[in-house]
Design brief:
This protein has nine helices and nine strands. The radius of gyration is 18 Å and the shape is globular. It has a seven-stranded parallel β-sheet with strand order 3-2-1-4-5-6-9, with helices on both faces. It has a two-stranded parallel ribbon with strand order 7-8. It has one domain: Rossmann fold (3-Layer(aba) Sandwich). The relative contact order is 0.15. Strand 1, helix 1 and strand 2 form a beta-alpha-beta unit. It has helices spanning 27-38, 50-62, 77-91, 114-143, 163-183, 201-204, 208-216, 227-237, 256-259, and strands at residues 18-22, 42-47, 67-71, 96-99, 146-153, 188-195, 198-199, 225-226, 249-252. It is an alpha/beta fold and 270 residues long.
């Protein structure tokens, strides 16, 4: 699907915007950075590992696009502030924030201790809140414009072995709607994009091709989505063409959430 995908967005759909994409070196974050850049935005990407974000920076610069790439752990306020200072010095302001950085580990709920639960929420809820608040109060609210994107999960219900992350991603849906309720008066939109089964490096860590094929059988579209499909959706949502969309969750999942039927439940324990 990736090789065949062709974005429907015009080259100038996001012309003049400045966008931050966290976790912009791999997977969905990389696809979002590429599509925002292709459609005219100046892009600042960050991630914990320097090699992937450097590769994206080199790719976008080779295409003649303005880009800033810096290592940054979004869980660390001092690193976040330093990154934002550099973004401000380079681009002056920020119009779009895509909170893509996230992560979790697979474990049965009974094996997830409080420490692990808190660690997942620190990355998937606390960090997006901190970065969003900083960007909004620094640039978006004073300018009376801006778009904040959060990345959720689909199916939008409890997913076995990732109770901690399912809980966190549900919080992001409510964070988006709450911020829309409060910040629409400032011209700031907030949207959650809940992605389903997407073929990324991160997804392939959970069992490889065999597991992916098993998951694909539960998706009405009968395939995994591509990161490029999610990237194009987000690039549309940040564009003026989506100016009337805010406070909601956009689901990109091949129909999985609507289908609502997962794998066969496990047998009862004796």
């Amino acid at each position: 699907m990736t090789d065949a995908f062709r974005s429907p967005l015009a080259d100038d759909a996001n012309e003049g915007a400045v966008a931050i994409v966290t976790g912009g070196g791999t997977g969905i974050g990389r696809a979002v950075a590429r599509e925002l850049s292709r459609t005219g935005a100046a892009v600042a990407i960050c991630g914990r590992r320097p090699e992937p974000i450097e590769a994206v920076r080199a790719e976008l610069e080779a295409a003649g696009r303005p880009v800033l790439a810096r290592p940054c752990d979004v869980r660390e306020p001092e690193q976040v502030e330093a990154f934002l200072d550099e973004v401000g010095e380079r681009f002056g302001a920020v119009d779009v924030l895509v909170n893509n950085a996230g992560g979790q580990f697979a474990a049965p709920a009974e094996d997830i201790a409080l420490k692990g639960f808190r660690a997942v929420h620190r990355l998937n809820v606390d960090a997006p809140w901190d970065l969003t608040h900083r960007v909004a109060t620094r640039w978006m609210i004073p300018a009376r414009r801006g778009v904040v994107i959060f990345i959720g999960f689909s199916p939008r219900r409890g997913i076995p072995t990732v109770t901690h992350s399912s809980t966190a991603r549900a919080a992001l849906e409510n964070m988006a709607s709450s911020l829309s309720n409060e910040w629409s008066k400032f011209g700031v939109r907030a949207i959650c994009v809940s992605a389903g089964l997407i073929r990324t490096e991160g997804m392939m860590q959970y069992g490889g091709e065999a597991a992916l094929a098993e998951y694909e059988a539960m998706v009405p579209a009968r395939r995994a989505g591509s990161a490029e499909e999610v990237g194009a959706t987000i690039a549309f949502l940040t564009s003026p063409g989506a100016a009337y969309i805010t406070g909601t969750t956009v689901v990109v999942d091949g129909g999985a959430d609507a289908w609502g039927i997962g794998a066969e439940p496990p047998p009862l324990e004796p």
